[in-house]
Automatic annotation (TrEMBL), chain A:
The active site is at C91 (glycyl thioester intermediate). The lineage of its organism: Eukaryota, Fungi, Dikarya, Ascomycota, Pezizomycotina. Belongs to the ubiquitin-conjugating enzyme family. This is Ubiquitin-conjugating enzyme E2 2. It comes from Lentithecium fluviatile CBS 122367. The keyword Ribonucleoprotein does not apply.
TrEMBL record, chain B:
It catalyses: S-ubiquitinyl-[E2 ubiquitin-conjugating enzyme]-L-cysteine + [acceptor protein]-L-lysine = [E2 ubiquitin-conjugating enzyme]-L-cysteine + N(6)-ubiquitinyl-[acceptor protein]-L-lysine. The keyword Cell inner membrane does not apply. It comes from the Eukaryota. Keywords: Isomerase, Repeat, Rotamase, TPR repeat, Transferase, Ubl conjugation pathway. Residues 214-287 form the U-box domain. TPR repeats lie at residues 10-43. GO terms for cellular component: cytoplasm. GO terms for molecular function: peptidyl-prolyl cis-trans isomerase activity; protein-folding chaperone binding; ubiquitin protein ligase activity. The keyword NAD does not apply. It holds the Pfam family TPR_11. It comes from Lentithecium fluviatile CBS 122367. GO terms for biological process: cellular response to misfolded protein; positive regulation of proteolysis; proteasome-mediated ubiquitin-dependent protein catabolic process; protein polyubiquitination; protein quality control for misfolded or incompletely synthesized proteins. This is U-box-domain-containing protein.
């Protein structure tokens, strides 16, 4: 209901100022936005790479979480991380139905993902990545991730 | 009380009216509700349903009549006040519209289920406030315009008199022609400068010129990013607009910031903040309201009510 108003305000702010390493690529409508993020320190896993994120908003945003996935193209790989599947699906509590709160926004999600990468030391995919990528037909928000570890 | 047979007939007619309403045939719905009222004029719902059909048909006076009759039958009548406010706004009675909308909001926020109608109604409250502000603003500009015109006229009279005096002195030989022309030119420049200063002063005194068009963060709801209308405070001291926080709590009964359990019953009105918001809205011209995205889909939100 208030999705369009709230997104319009967020967009205005994003045009104004963004934290380092985060850029707005495309926000032609109030349904789908593209953001780029890169890690600003020299974590060797991510150095020199830029990652592309796709945000999809429902009518109930921000009461409902946006759907956020990494997308791959020639210049943008999917970052290595034990919580990021190789198809771009992210397992992060704040994007989950339970973990989301309407005080989050596009910028804070980007910042959280950025810091999730910054603090990571394992160049790994989640357990069962191959199987998940091959078989998953669910939308990210309908997947029940089990947050088995809190170290990463 | 109508005979029981009539009550039944009225109920049948209402059901048919609801069906026509759903189909978008508001004329037919209005007529059917009218027939139902003839059978049973004690049911407030028949009046609010007809008011809703009349809203669609833009029969504003009819809406107002129906709402008033419905309220006579049932005092705590949120729907009637909601329709009434819309009709009053449409016929350009923003003061009445505002009190009706506030009444609807009051009834809504005290209702047991604290429905999502709160958001729709608070949007209507804002629209009424905006309409009220616009009228005041037009009046202010008109008055200011008069004052400016008066003062400019004064300056011009003085200027013309000076010019005539100089001309008279030239003609009588008191001053030389060249000297006189120079003085005339000087006076003309002085007059133009005074007039421009006056215009600048008036331009500066209008609040739109001076105010920074930004609502302070402490008046902004962290969920909608808009100025709050009815702020409520949570256990950790943060305030949110009641309507939007309830939307969140219905989905997830947690504090948006801390994720601690939080129920609707635990919310408390933040009266001082509400006053600050109201004061800001009243003092700060209509631009605050302009952030509205125009028409919202009121119909969809009320669909579940119109078939009651």
């Amino acid at each position: 209901m208030f999705a369009s108003k709230r997104l319009a305000k967020e967009l205005q702010k994003l045009h104004d100022k963004l934290p380092p390493g985060i850029t707005l690529v495309k926000a032609d409508d109030l349904q789908e936005w593209i953001m780029d993020i890169r890690v600003v320190d020299n974590n060797p896993i991510y150095v020199g790479e830029v990652y592309r994120l796709k945000f999809t908003f429902s009518q109930s945003y921000p009461i409902e979480a946006p759907e956020v996935v990494f997308v791959r193209d020639e210049t943008h790989p999917i970052p290595w991380h034990p919580h990021i599947y190789s198809n771009g699906i992210i397992c992060l509590d704040l994007l989950d139905r339970q973990g989301w709160s309407p005080v989050h926004n596009v910028e804070s999600v980007c910042v959280s993902l950025q810091s999730m990468l910054t603090s990571n030391t394992k160049k790994e995919r989640p357990e069962g990545d191959d199987n998940f990528v091959r078989n998953n037909r669910l939308r990210p928000r309908d997947i029940n991730f089990i947050f088995h570890d809190n170290q990463v | 009380m109508p005979p029981p047979g009539n009550e039944y007939a009225a109920e049948q007619l209402k059901t048919q009216g609801n069906a026509q309403f759903k189909n978008g045939d508001y004329e037919a719905a209005e007529a059917l509700y009218g027939q139902a009222i003839q059978k049973n004029s004690n049911n407030p719902l028949l009046f609010t349903n007809r008011a809703n059909a009349r809203l669609k048909l833009e029969k504003w006076e009819g809406v107002i009549d129906d709402c008033i009759r419905s309220i006579e039958l049932l005092k705590e009548n949120m729907k009637a006040y909601f329709y009434l406010a819309q009709a009053q706004l449409a016929i350009n009675h923003p003061n009445e519209a505002l009190s009706s909308a506030l009444m609807a909001y009051e009834l809504c926020s005290h209702s047991a289920q604290q429905t999502s109608n709160a958001a729709t109604i608070s949007a209507l409250v804002l629209r009424a406030k905006k309409a009220k502000w616009e009228i005041r603003e037009r009046e202010r500009i008109r008055r200011r315009g008069d004052l400016l015109a008066d003062l400019e006229a004064h300056l011009e009279v003085t200027y013309k008199k000076e010019q005539e005096d100089i001309q008279a002195r030239i003609e009588s030989g008191d001053v030389g022609k060249v000297e006189g022309q120079e003085e005339k030119e000087e006076r003309r420049k002085e007059w133009e400068k005074k007039r421009n200063d006056l215009r600048t002063a008036f331009a500066l005194s209008s609040p739109e010129m001076l105010q920074k068009r930004e609502v302070p963060d402490y008046l902004i709801d962290g969920i909608t990013f808009e100025i709050m209308v009815d702020p409520v405070v949570t256990k950790n001291g943060r305030s949110y607009d009641r309507a939007t926080l309830i939307e969140h709590l219905k989905r997830s009964p947690t504090d948006p910031l801390t994720r601690e359990p939080l129920s609707i019953r635990e919310l408390r009105p933040n009266i001082a903040l509400k006053e600050a918001c109201t004061e800001f809205l009243e003092g700060n011209s209509g631009w605050v309201y302009d952030c509205e995205d125009g028409e919202r889909d009121v119909d969809a939100r009320w669909a579940h009510l119109s078939s009651s």
